[in-house]
């Protein structure tokens, strides 16, 4: 597709359930980032992928959070045993990091809004 | 201390005025700096990037960088109601692996 695609756009779940959020980056983009944005807050870094590797996962808030990226493309963020404080918008961004044309710009998807009841 | 600090606002300016948004950062090794605009309920979009000390102009927008003072600013001239949004300052870490974002400044341009 032309842009970063995220699904689902909205997810309502019960406390204790597991959720998976998907990100399909711009084709050819080597870098992929996950951020979390709570109401009225800035973007909280979660994890960065370069290709399929995650050289920086320092932002994952707990061991309930995990992420993977396959084929240098699609990424899945998994939250196990969700808690109410996990409610936020989860944003994915990609960039052509390290390639010609890399200006540092991040291209964001529309986000997945997670509500944990 | 947060990596990137911004005044959260809200900042209100009349239509046609200059809006001034400020940002400070803590990583002295940072080399790349960005301003993103985020409309309510939407994702951030890049409006300006700056890498060298001084001013960079693009239309009604001017970004200013002072690495010695670890300070970045964004000026919006001839502000329009369509400029009403939250403006996020972002700084790329010296390793290049992370982009640190401020909490954003909410701008309202009053017609």
What do you see in this structure?
The complex is a heterodimer of chains A (117) and B (111). With 117 residues, chain A is mainly β. Chain A has strands spanning 5-7, 10-13, 19-24, 31-37, 43-50, 53-56, 65-69, 75-79, 88-95, 107-108, 112-116. Chain A contains no helices and 11 strands. Chain A starts with a strand and ends with a strand. Chain B is mostly beta strands and 111 residues long. Chain B is built from no helices and 11 strands. In chain B, the strands form 2 sheets. In chain B, strands 2, 4, 5, 9, 10 and 11 form a 6-stranded mixed sheet that branches. In chain B, strand 4 (32-38) and strand 5 (45-50) form a beta hairpin. Chain B is globular and about 40 Å long. The mean pLDDT of chain B is 93. Chains A and B meet through strand 5 of A and strand 5, strand 9 and strand 10 of B.
Secondary structure elements and pairings:
The complex is a heterodimer of chains A (117) and B (111).
Chain A lengths: L4 E3 L2 E4 L5 E6 L6 E7 L5 E8 L2 E4 L8 E5 L5 E5 L8 E8 L11 E2 L3 E5 L1
Parallel strand pairs in A: 2-11
Antiparallel strand pairs in A: 1-3, 3-8, 4-5, 4-9, 5-6, 7-8, 9-10, 9-11
Chain B lengths: L3 E3 L4 E4 L4 E7 L6 E7 L6 E6 L3 E5 L2 E6 L4 E6 L8 E8 L6 E3 L3 E6 L1
Parallel strand pairs in B: 2-11
Antiparallel strand pairs in B: 1-3, 3-8, 4-5, 4-9, 6-7, 7-8, 9-10, 9-11
Strand content of chain A: over 45%
Multimeric organization: heterodimer
Envelope shape of chain A: globular
Shape of chain B: globular
Helix content of chain A: under 10%
Helix/strand order of chain B, N-terminal first:
EEEEEEEEEEE
* H and E order of chain A: EEEEEEEEEEE
* Share of β-strand residues of chain B: over 45%
Q: Helix count of chain B? A: 0
C-alpha termini separation of chain A: 33 Å
Main features:
heterodimer, A: mainly beta, seven-stranded mixed sheet, four-stranded antiparallel sheet, 11 strands, B: 111 residues, mainly beta, six-stranded mixed sheet, five-stranded antiparallel sheet, 55% strand, globular
């Amino acid at each position: 597709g032309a842009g970063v695609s995220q699904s689902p756009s909205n997810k309502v779940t019960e406390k204790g359930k597991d959720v998976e959020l998907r990100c399909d980056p711009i084709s050819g983009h080597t870098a992929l980032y996950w951020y979390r944005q709570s109401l009225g807050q800035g973007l909280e870094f979660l994890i960065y992928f370069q290709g399929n590797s995650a050289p920086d996962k320092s932002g994952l808030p707990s061991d309930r959070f995990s992420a993977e990226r396959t084929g240098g493309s699609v990424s899945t963020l998994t939250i196990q045993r969700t808690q109410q404080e996990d409610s936020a918008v989860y944003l994915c961004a990609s960039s052509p990091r390290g390639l010609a044309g890399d200006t540092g710009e991040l291209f964001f998807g529309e986000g997945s809004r997670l509500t944990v009841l | 201390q947060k990596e990137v600090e911004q005044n959260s606002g809200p900042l209100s300016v009349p239509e046609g005025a200059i809006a001034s948004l400020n940002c400070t950062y803590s990583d002295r090794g940072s080399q790349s700096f960005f301003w993103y605009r985020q409309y309510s309920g939407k994702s951030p979009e890049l409006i300006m990037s700056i890498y060298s000390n001084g001013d960079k102009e693009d239309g009604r927008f001017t970004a200013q960088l002072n690495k010695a003072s670890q300070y970045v600013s964004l000026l919006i001239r001839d502000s329009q109601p369509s400029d009403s949004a939250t403006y996020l300052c972002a700084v790329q870490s010296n390793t290049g692996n992370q982009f640190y974002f401020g909490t954003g400044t909410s701008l309202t341009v009053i017609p």
